[in-house]
Please model this.
Amino acid sequence: MEINDFKSNDEITWCPGCGDFGILNALKKSLVNLGKEPKDILLVSGIGQAAKLPHYIKSNCFNGLHGRSLPPAIAAKIANRNLSVIVTTGDGDCYGEGGNHFIHNIRRNVDITVIVHNNQIYGLTKGQASPTTDLGYKTKVQVNGVILEPMHALEMAIALGCGFVARGYSANSEHLCWLIGEGIKHKGFSLIEVLQPCVTYNKKNTYEWYTKRIYKTEDDASYNPNDKIAALQKAAEWEERIPIGVIYRNEKDSYEDKSGLAKNIPLVDEEIENIDISEALKEFI
Model:
């Protein structure tokens, strides 16, 4: 496979300079490196700028409702475990509207990969504060500055026992490509949060701001991503130093293994009998 094998004919409508371009390129490279074909991939999204990404990759695609990307992704993986199911979502779509699904599907540990484009703002709806916006940041809605504590999603995921928790940076495409590959290969729920500058509405968390603060966890030889307490401390770092890389790894049985589904024929391969449901339908008329 080559990059062009995943090229879509849809026009990209992100703002010039948007961090989403880096995520798109990294995902394509990762799929090529893994030897995946378009038919093997299902990209699922909700609503938002991040949710446009499946339109820009040639593969199977499902667009859901705002905050509802995870339920169809989970269902698709359970029905056809031969698919590589990848959710592409934003900080608002996943942590805000989709917060309940985020929490409980980490607990279920179905084998999917969730890529959260975190620009710390609602970009599609013109710049309101999102669940991850920094304290004090002023928007057109929060005119006196954000007064709510931002959601610490990576810490939450680690506390819930998520098997793979990572953070990437959209401007470091090669590193992000590797992280996405590691997430897809992980057997279970994988969370990859990507710091993605919004060049239009977020004037604080810019490329320059991130570049001064970001460092790779792999460069710290003493760091052990299997240590849950150390991972929680690492995930909590912000403002002065911001880690990217694998924050936490915890290999454990997936939902498919624990439920016994892994031993059964995938639902898509089951033979379906022709059943007359006309009488049942009359009850609803």
Remarks:
- The two ends are 50 Å apart (CA to CA).
